[in-house]
Amino acid sequence: MPNTQNSTTQNTTTQNRWDQECDVLVAGSGGGALTGAYSAAVRGLDTLVIEKTGYFGGTTAYAGAGLWLPGNQAQERGGVADSADLGRAYFREVVGDATPHELQDAYLDHAGETVAFLEGNAHVRFEYRAFPDYYAAPGRFEAGRAVFPVDLPAPEAPHALLDAVRPPAWAERFGLPMPDGPLTDGRALIGRLLLALESTGHGRTLRHTALRRLIVEGDRVVGAEAEQDGATVRIRARRGVLLAAGGFEANAELRRQWQNLPGADWTMGAPGGNTGDAITAAAEAGAATALLDESWWCPSLRFPDGSAAFTLGLHGGIFVDGSGRRFANESLPYDRMGRQMLAAKAGTTHDNPVWWVFDERFGDELPGITVVPADRKAFTEAGLWRTADTLYGLAERIGVDAGALRTTVQTFNSYAADGVDADFHRGEDPYDRFFAQGDAANPCLVPIEEGPFHAVQIVLGDLGTKGGVRTDARARVLREDGSAVPGLYAAGNTTASVSGPVYPGPGVPIGSAMVFGHIAASDMVQQGAVAR
Fold first, then answer.
1. Can you tell me the mean pLDDT for 323-349?
2. Which of 11, 137, 236, 366 to pair with 193, CA 20 to 30 A apart?
3. CA-CA distance, 97 to 101, in Å (whole number)?
4. Helix, strand counts (H, E) of the chain
5. C-alpha angle with apex 189: 56 to 250, nearest 5 degrees?
6. Assign residue 194 a region: left if phi > 0, alpha if psi is -120 to 50, beta otherwise?
7. What does the alpha-carbon distance between residue 111 and residue 386 come to, in Å, rounded to a whole number?
8. Sequence ranges of the domains in the chain
């Protein structure tokens, strides 16, 4: 990543003829971006949000939108007694020294405040729902501590902002119309934040407007150049620029360069964006970067068009690698399972898939949750769903050793009978059991014994990259020497994540993005206007 200012620095204001001006410029429109935008606008700052694509919401709109924000009032309403210190004990145990403690503390100490601040607007409301923390560590909540946006009723008439919220992943993948009914999950969060921003009277939005470069005078970022309909738009930002435009998950070249992956086909990043533009622009303005080899990993169902979709919540079947053997607890939280795939070098390239093996008891349904549903006929025609009457036949069909696959299944079936997975301890953790079905002693262990037998291809996907610019506890972008770049802030997947190489619990990605978006806006308010 370049770390020079040559392409962005301009030393005199006479060179800057501004097409637009604002107090705060926000690049991106996901949870972190819109929280930052609202936080600035509600305090009277003229705030402009630019979004590269035609939809608001980024990958946040695809998400379940659980938010890991310890010690908030929505938890309290749900009867959950949590606090920043309880969250800190757990977070510190899991993340350790992988990221600066002051950065972690900023996240945890402002989590409850961020929820209260947002719920101060009538359009924003959260509720607690059970979803276990991901690690057995001190401070863990086995029933979970995440809060979620309350569903947002669909507008009764056309609404310029709500009608532009990104569709659900399944609808966008298949080119289907927007679903009827309320906005749910991530779409509800984006819709609520857009309504809150609109209600301030100080928020503006521009879609189809892509950040291209930052404009620097002296050592300060004073604005940005964006591309809109093929034309360059120069935008002055009097208080600062907040970069919250996602990561580089859709940039195949950067994925190969920094992560040694074959490309960008298997991400859940929303199409049209998340190509690392904000990270590159910041680096050219002098920003330091970190964690570029990291992502929010997840097992993903490979689709006939070459894409893949987030898969979680297995309630049946096992994963086997190219040797025909299991290599991990298939019920692990998705990022942890993705890291097991990385460690085993399984499912990481086109020629080393993981196979999800299960039996006929599930019929045409997959024994788990896929964010984008699979059509068995289409998958079978593409060779991604293979079936045989016997395990020997299935092994031949998926290209693994027949004896190894049969032994693997027989061993697993014996574990299912005993209720104990002696190899990988599947079903011993509360998270494992959260998605399990049935009332067996260990419902995570469902035997594979009713032919015909099935195998569906699984690859290593992600929910986005989590490496980017380094930031401090005030969400200011840092240089290599640790000094802040004046006027430049960042949040979400544009930054090097506060959780480092770990995914502690449901909602850390969006929750931390929202907190640091709020912190960034607060800092811009406190710093006051810069005379130019």
1. 97
2. 236
3. 7
4. 14, 19
5. 45
6. alpha
7. 46
8. 13-35+49-293+466-515, 296-462
13-35+49-293+466-515 topology per CATH: FAD/NAD(P)-binding domain (3.50.50)
Q: Mapping DSSP to helix (H, G, I), strand (E, B) and coil, where does residue 419 land?
A: coil
pLDDT band at residue 427 under the 50/70/90 scheme: very high
pLDDT at 530 over 80: no
Q: How far is CA 163 from the centre of its chain?
A: 23
Question: E strand or H helix at 300, and its extent?
Answer: strand 295-302
- What angle (nearest 5°) sits at the alpha carbon of residue 191, between those of residues 190 and 197? 90
- The mean of the pLDDT values for the chain is 95
In this prediction, residue 178 has a pLDDT band, given cuts at 50, 70 and 90, of: confident
DSSP secondary structure string for all residues of 112-147: HHHHHHHHTSTT--EEE--B--SS--TT--TTB--E
Confidence of residue 532 (pLDDT cuts 50, 70, 90): very low
**CATH class for domain 296-462?**
alpha beta
At which residue do the structure tokens 């749910």 appear?
Answer: 184
Give the separation between CA 229 and CA 226, rounded to whole angstroms: 10
Query: Does the structure show a pLDDT above 90 at 503?
Result: yes
Cα–Cα distance list, 417 to 222, 314, 327, 420, 441 (Å): 66, 18, 20, 8, 9
Span 356-372, mean pLDDT? 95
Peptide bond into 299 cis (omega under 30): no
Q: Please, are residues 215 and 10 in contact by the beta-carbon 8 Å criterion? A: yes
Distances (CA, A) of 343 to 321, 339, 347, 489: 12, 6, 10, 34
Backbone angles phi, psi at 84, to 5 degrees: -60, -35
